[in-house]
Design brief:
The chain contains 14 helices and 13 strands. It has about 400 residues and is of the alpha/beta class.
Length: about 400
């Protein structure tokens, strides 16, 4: 067949993740949505990860999902089934994207793809950042530095490219660790304004649409700075019940109990906790919020922030949420200082002019930049450049 008329087969890309559970956050949501969008452009995707209750809900909607059983020591991200599956199936793929760091599943995938001389992309999703390496205690830092030297550095060295979601993440990762691989890309990142449900139902929030509330939506985790958020809120809203603070998301039972005890001790009748929400319930919770807040200690991107903006909700975030670098000057981006957040909750949340101005600028300046169709085309071009077989 003449080379000018030969039809190229679709690129087949494997995504390797540490979890197939939407409740853990991380890159799963964007992986599924961008796989769906780029499938329309001729790419074919499969996902490999550890089995969970939601595996069946994901399979076939955007990509074929292949799940394996995890070992009893879950923190290691190990399964003897991973290498076996990869050895049996690697011939089907042109390359892989490894969406996690510090887990054995990433090492196994990198080893097999290197063995068969097939390219892979290393996509740490913020896990090489200064905060993630050094600011979770000396013991974790020591373990990560040792693991980097023995295993993870080799994964980085052998990658066809390293992906970062923001320029700040790329810069801070280079400050945290010596990354010798120079093939670094800041890739486009986005989610769709419409999210599918994942089979998880929660109790209806009675009368929620009729109340004013400020919303935190995401993992209720120390990294998200939830205790700081609650303290700032209670200091500002003491005696006022016009607004409530709603924290919605999955949480470790012990940490959630600590936060509830803090609220009880402070007499915080305007603080509510809601379990993880998906689908229509999530859309309703976002759409009815007056503000979205995220005072995280570190976020390499901030997918939940983008979801709020796409839902038409103004956001207030800490200056450690890196998507803030991509927003406009009217955006509320605050340092992690209690007094600044207290004043925001005392004054700015009542400023309807500010809300309207932010929503309008988000609509004109932010939403077009993160349009899922545009981002998918850019993402597909990058994947083709890295994985397309050379002729």
């Amino acid at each position: 067949m003449d080379e000018h008329t030969e039809e190229r087969r679709p690129l087949r890309i494997l995504h390797v993740l540490g979890s197939l559970d939407f409740k853990t956050g991380g890159p799963l949501r964007t992986t599924v949505e961008l796989a769906e969008q780029t499938a329309k452009l001729g790419l074919r995707h499969e996902i490999l990860g550890f089995r969970c209750d939601q595996t069946a809900e994901i399979d076939g909607k955007a990509a074929i999902v292949n799940s394996v059983r995890q070992s009893a020591i879950r923190s290691l991200g190990y399964s003897r089934d991973v290498s076996t599956w990869l050895e049996d199936n690697i011939s089907r793929f042109d390359g892989a994207i490894l969406h996690t760091s510090w887990l054995n599943i990433t090492y196994q995938a990198a080893r097999v793809f290197t063995k068969y001389r097939k390219p892979y992309v290393y996509f740490p999703h913020g896990m090489l950042d200064v905060w993630c390496v050094y600011r979770q205690g000396w013991l974790k830092a020591a373990k990560k530095l040792l693991y980097w030297k023995v295993i993870e550095e080799r994964i980085s060295d052998n990658a066809a490219a390293i992906f970062f979601t923001t320029e700040r993440e790329k810069v801070l990762s280079a400050k945290a660790l010596r990354i010798r691989n120079e093939r670094k890309w800041v890739v486009p990142y986005a989610v769709s304004p419409e999210r599918r449900g994942c089979g998880l139902e929660v109790e209806e929030l009675q009368g929620r649409a009729a109340k004013k509330y400020v919303l935190f939506l995401g993992r209720i985790h120390p990294k998200k700075n939830c205790e700081f958020l609650i303290r700032a809120w209670l200091m500002a809203q003491s005696g006022s019940e016009e607004y409530s603070l709603v924290l919605a998301g999955p949480a470790d039972a012990e940490y959630l109990a600590e936060l509830k005890e803090l609220v009880r001790m402070k007499g915080g009748r305007t603080v509510e906790f809601v379990d993880a929400v998906f689908g229509e319930e999530k859309r309703r919770l976002l759409a009815n919020a007056s503000w979205f807040v995220l005072p995280s200690l570190q976020e390499n991107f901030g997918v939940a922030v983008l979801e709020a903006i796409l839902a038409g909700v103004p956001v207030a975030i800490s200056d450690q949420v890196y998507i803030g670098d991509l927003l406009h000057p009217d955006s509320v981006i605050l340092p992690l200082e209690m007094d600044k957040w207290r004043k925001f909750f005392e004054n700015a949340i009542y400023d309807e002019g500010l809300r309207a101005r932010i929503i309008e600028r988000d609509r004109k300046e932010v939403m077009p930049r993160f349009d899922i169709g545009v981002v998918a085309q850019q993402y597909a071009r990058i994947l083709c450049e890295i994985f397309a077989p050379r002729r």
